[in-house]
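Many introductory courses stop at the sequence. We go one step further.
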Amino acid sequence: MKNFYAAWLERNRVTNMLRDGHRAPPEKLLQTIWQHQRLKRSELKTYAGRVIRILHPGFLSLEGGPDFRGAVLQFAGDAPIIGDVEIDLHPGGWHAHGHDKNPNFKNVILHVVWDGIQNLRPKEGQAFLPEVLPLNQLLDAPVEELAVALENESGLPENLRGKCSAPLRELSAAQLAEILREAAKVRFQNKAEAMRHRAKTSGWEQTLWEQLFRALGYKHNVWPMQNLAETKSQWLRGTDSVFSLQARLLGVSGLLPAELTRSQKSSDTFLRRAWDHWWRDRDEFEHCTLPREIWKFHGLRPANHPQRRLAMAAHWLAAKNLFSKIENWCIAEEAKKSLNRSLQEVLQVEYDDYWSWHWTFKSARLAKPQPLLGEARVIDLAANVILPWLWIRAKEGGNSKLMCEIEKRYLAWPAAEDNSVLKLARQRLLGSQNNRLLKSAAEQQGLMQIVRDFCEQANATCKDCRFPDLLLARKHAEQGSALQGEG
């Protein structure tokens, strides 16, 4: 009997794609076609008539900006170049979507479109336009067939994965975990060594504050957070409460809104009180006040907004004992039994009259109070800041037993939240999107270290990458050790 479900689904897929006589496929399908290179690759020419070779289509961006990053293309007989690729249905999307004015698109070297070529010569004073490649006559199969064939294809095709993907697949789970842990130890010790150098000039406590602030900035706002930590001795003086610290921090950060919301009564009450403090201080601290423009908010979850992170940091600073609490946690026996929970108890802010009930100034009051520090952020702070800082202090003090204990905690720490670097690395190196492959924070850290040491030093085609050589050398070493054991 005919599969009614499958037939109906197929009929409606094609109907939706071609509805109203519009033959342009969905942009997401175009992205998948580009990623899998379902093109007549020997016939590719840009709208300007330049022959183009796609040496690598790049990696699908998960964080906005151009659709594909790090593509390797060759125009006519020129040398290969590396850049980004943007995909739109029509070339007019370049201006309509504001790509011509967005600095995030400055490295786009190819604008892939479906059809509808227009005269897009830049006007005088207008930003550079990338080469345009129309795909409507260049697919290697009808678009309706490609829609079916690529429907469930979300990962990297085999031929676009890293050269190390095949040898990594030959490893057992235990062997892969061991390589990741070895790389994680390198990352851990590099972080610790950087802290030691900083502590020579700034002291251990100031170094810890700088690293904590950096981590609270995530990758988007590392620099402004670090800048605030570096000027802490200037803006900290004269504050006598958590709220005065919050007002001061929001003021010097440039994140204190200049206007009331006019819609959230509790937020406006907070802002009026904060400005009562800040208007008296801002002239004195003008020299260390940051411009709001240096902060980035795109892609941030409301709970991770820098305003809320600074409000939490004000509690840490006001308590004046975070330094000693972390030291005591390091040597406490109960910390060994419940790693993450015990550290969360040290770092967690119990309650804040305003920020426990709000994500941002514009958000409505929450139905119930939310913690200012989640479990995922504690894991991140532990792996990237607190454990390396404690370890290098133990090393400087010659306490090898404590060093071993801290390293043991690091290797046992639970896995953190997923991120774009890990997602791409799992596909590119491990041929999988499954986050369960990485069972600990250390394994995640190890994979990121491999990306830094090797993937970031090579292009998308893995040119001159030495990681496969490392895997081969390691394999030979293990075989040699096995033979010696047998002898």
